[in-house]
């Protein structure tokens, strides 16, 4: 993959061909790195390795890896190191999708346009594939190939563990299940659903935004700017996802639409209405863009991503 810093920049902060090309190039490079880090195994345990590869190499937007690569490029981080960290993050994201699709959770049959892992293999294999991806991600981050400085590697491990754990993604998923199943206090308002999704979806996106400045040993000011950018971007992404779940098709989304509404789950759309949800997502996108002023035109692709997440149709 060419140095991400040499990719043609967008002329403004709108999504367009330059962003599409950059995202496609990064997606291809991340998939290649994932394939290297998750090799085929010719042994009895090869079945779980095959399930890990099946889900991790299924494609998708690769938004989180793109944010890692682009934020790292701002600080002249080695492209290979950035791709390695991006791949580790995508392993965590993929493990969460595998488990999220299980019958005990969302019970879904379609993911990224293909049968979900437990449908392609079986439930036990899917659980183990998720476990394998989770642990492999931290093995990758701890390896010197992710960064020469052990203190940086330790910080990446700690930040990703916090983002993925009980006070981040896992905790947000627990709150979501409690609300859906009426465990404890099932009622949830806009503030409650905002907090839930900042944990469930936003924390991994937040990690993606700060991985670059961590690797680049950036100043506290620049790190804070990317932290704020990724925080607002993550929430805008989730609100837009709720809108798409209401308006999209299975062909466009690559997953089953309308399941949240059918299950009676609270979403930003059910709480705010469709138009207000769209308006709030755009406001958050605008805020995310404003946080990047310190970086000038070098961050144009990140600005375009903030527009992309609320204007996409899948």
UniProtKB/TrEMBL annotation:
Keyword Lipid metabolism attached: no
GO CC terms: cytoplasm
A Pfam family hit: polyprenyl_synt
Keyword list, A-Z: Isoprene biosynthesis, Magnesium, Metal-binding, Transferase
Claim: Signal is one of the keywords in the record: no
Protein name: Farnesyl diphosphate synthase
GO biological process terms, semicolon-separated: terpenoid biosynthetic process
Cofactor: Mg(2+)
InterPro entries, sorted: Isoprenoid_synthase_dom_sf, Polyprenyl_synt, Polyprenyl_synt_CS, Prenyl_diphosphate_synthase
SUPFAM superfamilies with a match to the protein in the record: Terpenoid synthases
Domain of life of the source: Bacteria
Similarity annotation: Belongs to the FPP/GGPP synthase family.
GO MF annotation, one: prenyltransferase activity
């Amino acid at each position: 993959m060419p140095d991400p810093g040499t990719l043609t920049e967008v002329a403004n902060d709108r999504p367009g061909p330059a962003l599409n090309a950059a995202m496609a190039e990064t997606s291809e490079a991340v998939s290649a790195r994932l394939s290297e880090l998750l090799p085929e195994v010719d042994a009895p345990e090869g079945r779980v390795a095959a399930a890990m590869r099946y889900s991790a190499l299924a494609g998708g937007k690769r938004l989180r890896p793109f944010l890692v690569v682009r934020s790292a490029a701002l600080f002249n981080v080695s492209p290979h190191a950035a791709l390695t960290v991006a791949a580790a993050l995508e392993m965590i994201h993929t493990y969460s999708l595998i488990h999220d699709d299980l019958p005990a959770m969302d019970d879904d049959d379609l993911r990224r346009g293909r049968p979900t892992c437990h449908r392609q293999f079986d439930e036990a294999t899917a659980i183990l594939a998720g476990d394998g991806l989770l642990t492999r991600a931290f093995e990758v981050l701890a390896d010197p190939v992710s960064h020469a400085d052990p203190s940086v590697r330790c910080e990446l491990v700690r930040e990703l563990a916090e983002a993925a754990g009980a006070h981040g993604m896992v905790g947000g998923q627990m709150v979501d299940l409690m609300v859906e199943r009426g465990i404890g206090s099932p009622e949830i308002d806009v503030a409650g659903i905002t907090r839930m999704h900042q944990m469930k979806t936003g924390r991994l996106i937040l990690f993606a935004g700060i991985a670059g400045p961590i690797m680049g040993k950036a100043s506290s000011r620049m790190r804070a700017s990317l932290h704020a950018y990724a925080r607002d971007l993550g929430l805008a992404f989730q609100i837009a996802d709720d809108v798409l779940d209401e308006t999209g098709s299975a062909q466009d989304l690559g997953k089953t639409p309308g399941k949240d509404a059918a299950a009676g789950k609270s979403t930003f759309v059910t709480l705010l209405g469709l138009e207000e949800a769209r308006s709030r997502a755009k406001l958050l996108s605008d805020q995310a863009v404003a946080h990047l002023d310190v970086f000038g035109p070098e961050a144009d692709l990140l600005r375009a991503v903030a527009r992309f997440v609320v204007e996409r149709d899948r």
